[in-house]
Amino acid sequence: MPTHAVMTRDRHLIHQKQGQLRQRQKDGLPFDRMQSELNELIEKSETLHQARLSRLPKITYDESLPVAARADEIIKAIQENQVVIIAGETGSGKTTQLPKMCLQAGRGIAGLIGHTQPRRIAARSVAERISDELQVNLGEQVGFQVRFSDESNEETLIKLMTDGILLAEIQQDKRLYKYDTIIIDEAHERSLNIDFLLGYLKQVLAARPDLKVIVTSATIDVERFSQHFENAPIIEVSGRTYPVEIRYQPLLSKSDSEELDEDQSMEQGVLDAVELLIAEERQSGYRGAGDILVFLPGEREIRETAEILRRAELRGTEVLPLYARLSASEQQRIFKSHSGRRIVLSTNVAETSLTVPGIRYVIDPGLARISRYSVRSKVQQLPIEKISQASANQRAGRCGRVADGICIRLYDENDFNNRPEFTDPEIFRTNLASVILQMANLKLGAVEKFPFVEMPEKRMINDGYRALTELGALHKDRLTPIGRQLAKLPIDPKLGRILIAAEQHSVLKEVAIIVSALSIPDPRERPQDKKTQSDQAHAVDKDEDSDFAVFLNLWERFEEQRQALSQNQLRQYCRKQFLNFMRMREWRDIHRQIMIACKQLGFKEVQHEERHYEAIHRSLLAGLFTHVANKMEDSKDMLGCRSRKLSIFPGSMLFKKPPQWIMAAELSGNQQAVRARCRSY
DNA sequence: ATCGAAGTA
Fold this sequence. Notes:
Layout: H1 8-26, H2 32-54, H3 71-80, E1 83-88, H4 94-104, E2 112-117, H5 120-133, E3 142-146, E4 149-151, E5 158-162, H6 163-169, E6 179-184, H7 192-207, E7 212-217, H8 222-228, E8 234-237, E9 244-248, H9 266-283, E10 291-295, H10 299-311, E11 317-322, H11 328-332, E12 341-346, H12 349-352, E13 359-364, E14 367-369, E15 372-374, E16 379-381, E17 384-386, H13 389-397, E18 405-409, H14 413-418, H15 433-441, H16 458-471, E19 474-475, E20 478-479, H17 481-487, H18 493-504, H19 508-518, H20 531-539, H21 547-564, H22 567-576, H23 581-600, H24 613-624, E21 628-631, E22 638-640, E23 645-648, E24 661-663, E25 666-668, E26 673-675
Parallel strand pairs: 1-7, 1-8, 2-5, 2-6, 3-5, 6-7, 9-18, 10-12, 10-13, 11-12, 13-18, 23-26
Antiparallel strand pairs: 3-4, 14-17, 15-16, 19-20, 21-22, 21-24, 22-23, 25-26
The protein binds one DNA strand through residues 118-120, 146-147, 162-165, 167-172, 189, 191-193, 297-300, 323-325, 347-349, 352-353, 368-371, 382, 426, 434, 487-491, 521-522, 526, 590, 593, 596-597, 600, 647, 649-651, 655, 668-669, 673, 675.
């Protein structure tokens, strides 16, 4: 009986069929057909296995990377252990070299080597790099899969993907039989996806003794991962970085100095630090002009700092903003070569997602916007907080990649020492409804018993259960038919609930457009210096009663243009109309994906001559019933659920003349200003 | 009088 040369994904099925066959034999039933089916299955599996083996590329390592010197040790560890933890800083080469070591350890033939990344761009670029190094075509032996795009095939040995893709695959393949090896990369980022995967894999490992798992992380908190996987061995790899000098230069405070009229602003502190760095560089006799990376909490702070720097008229200096909302081409400017000095003002994107090349200095005010979910108010908030020590060190490391660097922290050392060591993992900071829904759907049992790396608080778990119960997805902690449908929709459960209601009200077509708009950031842009122009451009879509209907108008207007114009013309149209091209595309992509999922659930699109406002808004209410508010007397403020005082978002059509009742798409802000896209009755 | 950055069946 073959058990060595077949694919892992077939092994289970073959085993099952062999059992059935023996049973039939024992029972004296005919089994010829089953036998030939089984043989065919085995033969096919063996052939594929052979083909994959024959296409194994020659493996070489980039010897300049520190991890390459450890190849033998790592390969041995993989062969001898089910789980290995690899710890190493950026520049160690672990991400690109590790999958090749897995191949050399004999992995990747009977099943895929699955390699997860937290971000799509990383999944794609790592796959490109590895396929280059192995001299194979991308999409063949080395492939990748991210949302909306799959470049892998039957003969793919190494598949890069986002962690979300692997998570999604669990639904089809509970034991992950497709894979013989799984690498969870950047585990220290501790995203919700990563934490869920690490818990899930711990359970799968018992049922899959042939599966290998490799967890990689920066050298922070690695013992925790090792303990999670029964004291798996840790291999630590050095990074290839240069020393960074850390300086503490707190902002001047009124209370410390008699001459000061007011506290020094963060923006002013940044300018002072910039001038200091420039003066020092000149004195040191260094001939070049080192680039500076400044971390700021948000777009507004970036704008204000840019303005102050421009006014300071620094010679030969270019100021570049950087944040995720910029279009790809605007972000690309960071990678273009330049003369003179460059000062990049960036949000947290530059901390982990994007590496700005050639940085010599970092200025770090030590702040970031961090999302937190409040169980008390049921609102996801974005307060500006002091970042953790780990995060501050990560920022400092951004200037030690090409040469020695200097990092100026705009706070004192005592402040640093008093900060938490690590950023709270996302699982502690987020609404758990979606995770609980997935877990219920996968029949993983009680959330409190799941082997999370760190268990979320009981009240957060209870809150998630309650939210799902309110939506009708759970009844007495068991999945209802609605819950089963929700679990198959790739969006937030609230929004999924709206789609289900829309199907019942025969307005799926319209509501799917609105729901997909609500699941992306607003594609309408409103630049600081062109507020009136952009408001005017957006006004063509306005609807007197409902901010939700605006999305339908915008969608229809855009669809007409999209069908008439070339790609370039469409980009131009977006620019003129103050629409973010990338967001518009994402909107369509998500809409398409939602519609596919809805069709698989048997939902029907109905064509209407006119808009059924009431049906559309009734559907929305099925998910947004906790976002209803009533106007208070003699005030513009509204009274929402849980006696919460709300105000309407200034961008809303209903801002000027609030109706008696509203239903908001989203509650946000620290004072809980409602972002109301609403409808009155 | 207006919001961070990641991600998905």
